[in-house]
Amino acid sequence: MKFQTARPVAGITVYQPGKPIEEVERELGISGSIKLASNENPLGPSPKALEAVRKALGDLNRYPDGGGYYLKRALARHHGLAPENFVLGNGTNEVLELLAHAFLDPGDPVVFSEGAFIVYLIVAQLSSCEMRTTPMRDFTHDLDAMAAKMDERTKAVFIANPNNPTGTAVGEKALRGLLERVPERTLVVVDEAYCHFAHREDYPDAVKMLREYPNLVAMRTFSKVYGLAGLRVGYGVAHPEVISALERVREPFNVNSLALVAAEAALEDHAHVERGVRANAEGREFFVRELATLGLPFVPTQGNFIMAEVGDAKGVYEALLRDGVIVRPVAGYGFPRHLRISIGTPEENRRVVESLAEIMAK
Questions:
Q1: What is the pLDDT of residue 19?
Q2: CA distance 74 to 92
């Protein structure tokens, strides 16, 4: 039996997540595996977030606060803005979908980089947009090339800063240069999922730039430094008119009650965030040193992961799996010779380097 879909779906790119530990161990008959494939926080959630979740467990028979009243106000205090500047999502992926539902029509031009976070491509495909892509320069968004692709018809441009999977980031001067060249009706969506880990001195904070550029949309997540990936909560920050449009297309109760209270508590646990940033910096320095020792080229990273060139990436990835080490192949992003390695605990980091050393020596 064949069913008629609303649009051709066979050509839509399918997002490939990092393999779960349970799946790898079941398929290969192994145990004791580690996962450094999904850029998760190896320190886990904030203790304050865990306590907030425990307290909320007794109310799971109730629907969550559909408007996210308290979390929006906590975010407003945190960023020095108004609650009307925020929309909540089931991860930032849903915020991207809301932007598409509210602002993108079939045939609308959108601009993003080849090698950028793949969900931009997926959202553009689902919206039947005209996709104008540009090659990266040194694994980094080429904002001049992206600006050259824009015209008065362009509805949106997507920039991951830092970018996943390359780990690179653009500076404030470059971002402002693009914002000055963009047509006023074009939304500039800056995905800052990894902003806490960025360490270049001129790293721009898109949230702080909103007052200057009303067509700017910033996105943040609680999945990375806050360690709440399993609860799926993110948010968009924008001009109230943009937020109002997003709220109109948002599904009711899109963020569950445990996610709401955990995110609010995690936002206030500054010590946990600082520990995560510090641990990531130490892990980043370890990988930079050890990959150089192995003679493996890598892309200097501003994130909580590092992309290394290993040659036969598919073969090395499969060999690592058999050794119980799960990383991320990135051929689907246009990097068939690279693997992306999340920064984990010191023990996990040492194990992946030791496994790599043995595999590359064969």
A1: 86
A2: 18
Distance from C-alpha of 215 to C-alpha of 44, rounded to nearest angstrom: 35
What's the pLDDT at 335?
96
50-93, pLDDT tens digit by residue? 999 999 999 999 999 999 999 999 999 999 999 999 999 999 99
Range of the domain at 280: 21-44+271-361
What confidence score (pLDDT) does residue 4 get? Answer: 67
Give 140-199 pLDDT, tens digit per residue: 999 999 999 999 999 999 999 999 999 999 999 999 999 999 998 999 999 999 999 999
Q: Write the pLDDT tens digit of every residue in 145-162.
A: 999 999 999 999 999 999
Q: Look-up: residue for tokens 């999502």?
A: 89
Is residue 264 within 8 Å of 72, Cβ to Cβ? no
Residue 6 tokens, joined: 């609303």
State residue 16's pLDDT score.
Answer: 77
pTM: 0.95
Q: What element of type H or E holds 355?
A: helix 346-361
- On whether both 240 and 345 belong to a single domain, the answer is no
C-alpha atoms less than 13 angstroms from C-alpha of 84 in its C-beta half-sphere:
6
Strand order in the sheet with 109-113: 86-89, 234-237, 216-221, 187-191, 156-160, 109-113, 130-134
Tokens of 199: 């360490």
> Are both 168 and 287 inside the same structural domain?
no
Q: Six-digit token pair at 355?
A: 């496994």
SS3 156: strand
Identify whether residues 260 and 283 lie together within a single domain. Answer: no
Instruction: Say yes or no to pLDDT of 111 above 90.
Output: yes
Q: Looking at beta carbons, which pairs linking 81-87 to residues 24 or more positions away fall under 8 Å?
A: 81/207, 81/210, 81/237, 82/240, 84/240, 84/243, 84/244, 85/210, 85/237, 85/238, 85/239, 85/240, 85/243, 86/235, 86/236, 86/237, 86/243, 87/235, 87/236, 87/238, 87/243, 87/246, 87/247, 87/250
For 97, the 3-state DSSP assignment is helix
Decide: helix, strand or coil at residue 41: coil
Query: Does one domain contain both 182 and 275?
Result: no
Answer for the pair 310, 316: CB distance below 8 angstroms, yes or no: yes
Residue 319 has pLDDT above 80, yes or no: yes
